[in-house]
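Re: the request from the purification team.
They wanted to know what the chain is likely to look like in 3D before they choose a buffer screen. I agreed to run a prediction and write the result into the notebook, where they can find it.
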Amino acid sequence: MLKMSDICILLSVFVAFITTAYLWFTGQQQEGLFTATWIPSILTFAIYFKVISRKG
């Protein structure tokens, strides 16, 4: 079962992906590449906090 925090993380990744695709296909490739780096960063932070919460 997904927690509310998991849903928020997935929603933020989805918004970052949509933003990246929009920027890329409207001709703003540099901005699209910049926002594309947000996706793995958000997922990495989510994994980190999930691991930390299970240790405690």
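For the purification team: The chain has one domain: 4-55.
Please add any questions underneath this entry.
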